[in-house]
Amino acid sequence: MSRTLEVFWVPLLFLGVTLLGGVRVAERVVFVRPPLSALVLAVLLLTALVRCGAFAPQRLMHAARSTIENLSGAAVLLTMFAASVQAFNSVIPETGLPRLLAVVFLVVLLLNTIAASTDRTHVLRSTAVILGSTYVIKFIVLAALSDPAGGWLQRVLLATLEGVTLGTLTQAPLALVSGYVSFVTLALFLVGLILLPRRHESSALVPAN
Amino acid sequence: MRDGMVRAIGLAIVVSGFGGIVWIYARQPQSLAEATGALSASVGAYHADEQAFADGLRFFRHDQFAAARLAFERADPAHQDARTQFYIGYSYYREGWGRLYVDRDLFARGLDAVNRAIAAAPRGRLVVDDAQLQMRSGDELKAELETGLQARTEVNPFTIVRRQRK
């Protein structure tokens, strides 16, 4: 990881995710604060990334580095954690049963990823699938169910979910732009994860100059 | 440039960026005008447009409430001036008050405005020096709006004995 990446690009990328992760556009723009469950999920994701070697915090902070180097390493770690919290905040449904199910689903998947402790590629791919599938559930499936105007997808889903009380599933409708913002947020987050220093590179991470 | 200097600049950018994000999530600005207005208000540099405020006040006194709100909005686009927000809240109260009913939507908007006014006032104490108003404090207006909103139905014949506080 080069010095410029460590000092500027990666933290700024993660700050962008932190900013955009809570943006919801409906009648007005709301910056939704993350639920506590997003903090737990972020800790689990961080654990999974460290265990598989996709992220090596010891390369950002260690005794051989100067104080300022360790501080900029800590900035990467903290912005990465904040971005993880906001990435989950972005895809977790806002209310009700879907929110509970999504959180349980994400916890189980992340625990499974930690237990499997696979390699970096698999964990990054798994993270993309986990976030992507929750995105689809929130912004396509639940949005279709909650659409006041209805539509073919809503009719199909209603037929599939016969017997389930719709009130437990529907969410407050969001503007289409919320989905686009969330998509960009997740894409930026995944790019940031790919840029993080991994375990198997040389431990001399940053050129001395 | 020296390594330490580059890292210090990077850290300063990250810390100020993170602080900015926390501020945005705490203040929930709805537009760039609100964001810049709130920032300048936090350093005491924000002032409402006096000409637009005077226009709004003139409309308000002639019971032209929608026009008054447009002018007040022009005077205080960042919603940071306590006095202007108080008059916006009052205009919703006056327009939403009816002999037999209250317009809950207008009262709710009025309550939002008076809450903004109280939040913008120093230590939350808002008193407007206007002899033509029966309610001159933010607390009175807020209580009146909340009472209206707590009525069980919009149409309430019992309110016939109540008087509007002009």
Question: Would you give an account of this structure?
Answer:
The complex is a heterodimer of chains A (209) and B (166). With 209 residues, chain A is mainly α. Helix content of chain A is 66%, strand content 3%. Chain A has one domain (3-195). Chain A has 7 helices and 2 strands. Chain A has a two-stranded antiparallel ribbon. In chain A, a hairpin with a 3-residue loop joins strand 1 and strand 2. The mean pLDDT of chain A is 86. With 166 residues, chain B is mainly alpha-helical. Chain B has a domain at 48-161: Serine Threonine Protein Phosphatase 5, Tetratricopeptide repeat, CATH 1.25.40. Chain B has 7 helices and no strands. The longest helix of chain B is centred in the N-terminal third of the chain and has 25 residues, at 3-27. The radius of gyration of chain B is 20 Å and the shape is elongated. The N and C termini of chain B lie far apart (67 Å). The mean pLDDT of chain B is 86. The chains are: A mainly alpha (209), B mainly alpha (166).
β-strand amount of chain B? under 5%
User: What gyration radius of chain B follows from the Cα positions, in whole Å?
Assistant: 20 Å
Spatial strand sequence of the major β-sheet of chain A: 1-2
Envelope shape of chain B: elongated
Termini separation of chain B comes to 67 Å
Overall average residue pLDDT of chain B: 86
Poorly predicted parts of chain B: none
Helical coverage of chain B, percent range:
55-70%
Greatest chain-chain contact: A-B, 25 and 18 residues
Continuous helix count of chain B:
7
Question: What is the average per-residue confidence, as pLDDT of chain A, rounded to a whole number?
Answer: 86
Specify the structural class of chain B. Answer: mainly alpha
- Write the CATH fold name of the domain at 48-161 in chain B: Serine Threonine Protein Phosphatase 5, Tetratricopeptide repeat
Order of helices and strands of chain B: HHHHHHH
Morphology of chain A: elongated
- As a percent range, the share of helical residues of chain A equals 55-70%
CATH superfamily of the domain at 48-161 in chain B: Tetratricopeptide repeat domain
Quaternary class: heterodimer
For the secondary structure, the number of strands of chain A is: 2
CATH class of the domain at 48-161 in chain B: Mainly Alpha
